[in-house]
Amino acid sequence: MLAQTIQSISDQEYPAEKIEIIVVSQTEEILSIEKQYDRDEFEIKFVLRPDSETISELRNYGVTLTTGNFLAFLDADIFLAPDWITTMFSELSIDNHRVLVSAMQVCDSNAKPLEYIRTCLSNAVIDSNVTFLPGRNLFLARHIFDEAGGFPAHLITCEDYYFTDKVSNLGNLYYTSRTNYIHLGEDKNFRDMFKKEIWRGQSNIQSTRGRKIGLRELPSILLPLGMAILVILAIVCLFLKLYYISIALILMSVFPVFLYSFRLFYISKYKLGIGLLLKFYTVYFIARMAGTLIGVIRPIKTEHK
User: Fold this and answer.
1) Which of 17, 34, 53, 250 has the smallest set of CB atoms within 10 Å of its CB?
2) What was the pLDDT predicted at 146?
3) Strand 172-183 vs strand 78-80: parallel, antiparallel, or unpaired?
4) Which of 23, 21, 24 is nearest to 12 (CA)?
């Protein structure tokens, strides 16, 4: 997928000599991949970093190796449309208050149902200013990155929420449909999704440190923890033979599953089956509850030295 990502960059409708590609990784496999590329085609550097570093530190280090006035941050499994760079420049220059832009997600030709759900969620708000942007594809001026202070080194995940929130204090974040990307590494099955959401949930609470939390973001932060507490209380009440209270607590804990499922059913214009959406949010919230509890009880990384 990294090779496909690099290929999509080299195929851009933009002068190759003006592009620098910095691949920052923690696996030695990139050293063998590096030999595959002709340096005369475009400038590309492969950098190996220690396993102890967070994603934020990898991205921040990559910036130190660049010389351009504009930065594009991509995950290693993002296939860009050929006009991505030119459109990003155009979208960034349209509005003087706009400081960060991102393209919308589209599905692969052989996409699984889970990928359609994720894509629909990503595109819930399009061609509009947004409160945050996922870190899969971001484009901004270098001075904006510097003013925002870079990515938060103390987080192992949710770093994109934290970073784009800080950038939003400097101007508008814009999500455009004028160009797009395919998320090659999108979850293909619920088992993979479950594992990833547990991992993502572990920084759920830590990501709130040192920044102002908007009202729209509060549910995603508080709901998993609140649902976990309700489930624990329901189990306690069950052992105490307080059956009616236990049932009431369980019903309260699963209410967000139904609420979010019917919300996405409406957003998708009734194209996604409600049964599939109920399954999706059941897996999602169980994983997020587990990840959030792990992050609270045993923080993976509360401080980085």
Assistant:
1) 17
2) 96
3) antiparallel
4) 21
Residues 6 or more apart whose Cβ sits within 8 Å of residue 205: 221, 225, 292, 295, 296
Q: Is 4 exposed, middle or buried (0-12, 13-18, 19+ CB in 10 A)?
A: middle
Phi, psi of 141 (to 5 degrees): -75, 150
Residues of the chain with CATH 3.90.550.10: 2-188
* Alpha-carbon distances, residue 56 vs 42, 82, 153 (angstroms): 25, 27, 5
Answering whether pTM is above 0.85, one says: no
- DSSP letters along 290-305, please? HHHHHHHHS-S-S---
pLDDT of residue 217: 64
CATH number of 2-188: 3.90.550.10
Q: How far apart are the C-alpha atoms of 1 and 276, rounded to whole Å?
A: 27
93-147 pLDDT tens trace: 999 999 999 999 999 888 888 999 999 988 988 999 998 898 899 999 999 999 9
Q: What is the pLDDT of residues 186-205, one digit of tens each?
A: 888 899 899 988 888 777 66
